[in-house]
Amino acid sequence: MKNLINLSLIYFKQTLSQLFKSRRKGGALSNGVFAFVIFVVVALAMGFAYLGTAQQFSEIGHPEYVLVIGLMLSSFLVLMMTVYDSQNQYYKNKDYDLLASMPIKTWEIITAKYLSSYFVSFFYGFLIAFPAFVIYFIFCPITVSAVIYTILSFFFIPTFTQQIGSIIAYLLSLISSKMKNKKLLSNIITIFFTLGLITFIYLANSSLTQDLFVSGIPLWIKIVFPHINFLFNSITTGDFLQFLAFLAVTMAFALISVGIITIGYKKINSSLTSHSSKKNNKPLVYTNSKPLSSLIKKEAKTFFSSPTYFINSIIGPIMVIVLAISMSLGARGIYGTYENFTSEYFIIMFVCFSSMCLGIGVPTSASISIEGTKFYLLKSFPISYKDIINSKLIFNIMLAIPFVLISCTIYVSVSPCNAGEIILVYLLPIISMITFSGLGLLTNLKWPKLDWLNEAQAVKQSMSLFVSMMISMMISLIPFLVYFLLFIEISQIFTLSQYLALHLAFIVLICIIVYSLLYTYGEKLYRKI
Amino acid sequence: MLEIYNLTKKFGNKIAVDDLSLTVQDGQICAFIGHNGAGKTTTLKCIAGILDFDFGEILVDKINIATKPIEAKRVISYIPDNPDLYEHLKGIDYLNFIASIFGLGKEERKEKIEYYAKRLDIFKDLNSVISSYSHGMKQKLALVSGLIHSPKVLLLDEPFVGLDPISSHAFKEIMSELAESGVTILYSTHVLDVAEKICSHVAIIKQGKLIKYGTMQDITSDESLESVFLELENEKSN
Question: Does residue A464 contact residue A369 with C-beta atoms inside 8 Å?
Fold first, then answer.
């Protein structure tokens, strides 16, 4: 038990230090304040979204269902995150040899690792769930039991889904550890799993709201996410037994998951870290290339050899295609359903949401961190800052551009657009993607994380990713929200092409600002690393 | 030639390198010794252009590293104490990458890679992925990568760690040959008997300050380098 506490404290300190540390005096405080401000902005945005949902549910006399929506979204987010994080946390961590050589029980190592990733899950889970609770208390009566259960439940909200995610990660690692080409297989399995999960979330979210309107909490939630059902019942009815059931199911899953992971921990790690010693007798190939193309090749190899980096970065581009397909397939039906929503509205929605997807997990926001201490090696080479930066930007653009082109082609081939609109539909996501690539790199230069223990720490648990993703989302959604809120006024002044052109001018302006900063202030940041 | 004038590097309020001046001429192998945290690696990183410094001037082959970093880095080779290489690449891919960065032509890179990789007994493993290498093999690959572009100034941070006796001997020979051909070598180490055997000069650093510099013969006289170093450490502590 003493070992567990010591190890947990070390992990906790490390997580805190990696999230907020800064070489500047007072830098940690300003990083913390900045993160808090972004946290508040996102929580407010979520709050407004929940407000609309609660108002809709009020019409059928059940505003409390907003809590179910909030808890589901929070659970989905934690589940998505945990599947990647756990694979790195438990199975591809640099501290495996050290810990395995020490007199610490495996379950203690697993529990300490669980608690360390719990901190990050709690942060994201709380960010999504907390505004739903606030909205719930605005619309529903405040009772002592509801407040007590709410406060107590905060600490356990991510636990259940985090354990499910850990077990899925265990299974994925177990399968890939048994295969010859572990990294490639891990990439393929995880990408299929991610696509499946995105589809599940999409379908579940669409059906959940409908089910809640018609018949209350659906059966599948009670079976798949029982903790949500128990917590919802305990808060809305004040039933202590329901709250106990929530705690029991959460803790039981925690114990089961720690047990399962403990059993396979050493075997999977030994297998994943083993290398084939087969000699390769092929003749050596001496390839001659220019420094920039050599750097781009290195970026590509780094990208495809790291499952975490690969999956995290590919989700956004894949979602752009999924968005195009779902909007194209559903477009005709939706035009007929909502009288106020014209085809113009959906074009704006498509370009804004495509841009938003391209801002999710931009590879550049982790491309400095993923270098680790090799970054210093790179710095010692006779290559300019611009070459290093350009190689990362070019690779990112080369990676995303096919997805954007496919997505836009799918959309314009189905939706009614004139020639001008078609050009703008292509240009807007492309310029947004270029902007977000620069923004990601700038944030990573500002908050680099080179001394990581596993790739997930560099890629997912970083200020740079969080900040660049949030800013990208804000930039993408502003034109959509303006159009949505001032639809009548705007449609009287501008045609769709004119509004899209204005939107383009807005993105181009931001792009110019971002790249000016990247090539001036960014170089100063680079020199300081 | 490597010239350092009044180098000062601070980390916050802590002075890591304090007004250090040092000149290593062409063809000299200078041992750079000091206790842990004395400022050796920080100095090497400043020379290599990895860290910016607060005050002073560093000239590498007469090129100022602060004002012309790219030109200066073309003639430097820095080999860190713990070779953290791109593990997902094959050894040959990594060497091709380094050769491309330094603009080596196909024939030249082939010749240099074969020459150094064979001498350090890593040639047969170049088609394997670096992640499958042992620590010593990674060190050998790092050394080969540092030599193929014919640097004029070689900065070595504990280069013998992890090397087997045969490769260690081979690298000592390479160092001597390079020095004879005019390459400047600044070599940071804690292994004083090796330094005593292969270095022409020695610089001793303590708490960021250079406390002794001269030829190995002048510094050691009849004593061993280890005794001199221990005496200096105790002297300054008292």
Answer: yes
Q: CA B197, CA A495: separation in Å to the nearest integer?
A: 82
Who has greater pLDDT, A444 or A371? A444
- On average, the pLDDT of chain A sits at 81
In this complex, do A382 and B74 lie within 8 Å of one another by their Cβ atoms?
yes
- The per-residue pLDDT for A298 is 86
pLDDT in tens, A350-359: 888 888 888 8
Tell which residue, A83, A107, A115, A1, has the closest CA to residue A456: A83
Partner-chain residue, chosen from A286, A305, A376, that has the shortest CB–CB distance to B96: A286
State whether the Cα torsion A139-A145-A150-A153 is positive or negative.
negative
Looking at residue A20, what is its pLDDT? Answer: 61
Q: pTM score, two decimals?
A: 0.71
Question: Confidence class of residue A330 from pLDDT cuts 50, 70 and 90?
Answer: low
Positions in chain B whose pLDDT score sits under 70: 236-238
Dist CA A295 CA A315 (whole Å): 24
Chain-chain contact of B113 with A374 (C-beta, under 8 angstroms): no
Question: What count of other Cβ atoms lies within 10 Å of the Cβ of residue A178?
Answer: 11
For A225, phi then psi, to 5°, come to -125, 65
**Residue A260, amino acid:** I
* Confidence check: pLDDT of A335 > 50: no
Residue A384 sits at the chain B interface (C-beta within 8 Å): yes
Are the Cβ atoms of B132 and A275 closer than 8 angstroms?
yes
Q: What are the residue ranges of helices labelled H in chain B?
A: 40-47, 69-74, 91-101, 106-119, 135-147, 165-180, 192-198, 216-220, 225-237
| Pick from A58-72, A272-286, A366-380, B27-41: least confident | A272-286
- Out of B88, B92, B100, name the one closest to residue A290 (CB): B100
A65 and A57 Cβ atoms separated by less than 8 Å: yes
**Encoded tokens for B183:** 């390459």
User: Are A284 and B113 within 8 A, CB to CB?
Assistant: yes
What residues of A are in contact with residue B48 (Cβ under 8 Å)? 380
**What are the DSSP E strand ranges found in A396-461?**
none
Question: Do B102 and A285 lie within an 8 Å CB cutoff?
Answer: no
Phi, psi angles (nearest 5°) of residue A103:
-75, 65
Strands (E), A17-148: none
pLDDT score of B32: 93
Cβ-based neighbour number of residue A52 at 10 Å: 11
Query: Which residues on chain A are in Cβ contact (under 8 Å) with B129?
Result: 275
Q: How many C-beta atoms lie closer than 10 Å to residue A495's C-beta?
A: 13
**Which of A22, A278, A286 is the best residue to mutate to test the B interface, defined by the most B CB atoms within 10 Å of its own CB?**
A286
Element at B77 (helix H, strand E): strand B76-79
Cβ under 8 Å to A: B residues 8-37: 11-12
Which string of b and e fits B57-68 if b means at least 16 CB within 10 Å? ebbbbebebeee
User: Residue A209 pLDDT more than 80?
Assistant: no
* pLDDT above 60 for A214: yes
For position A353, what pLDDT does the model report? 87
Whole-number Å distance between alpha carbons of A11 and A463: 18
DSSP-derived secondary structure letter, B90: B
What span, in angstroms and rounded, lies between the C-alpha atoms of A412 and A422? 6
pLDDT at B31: 92
Of chain B residues 110-149, which have a CB less than 8 A from chain A?
A: 110, 113, 124, 126-129, 131-132
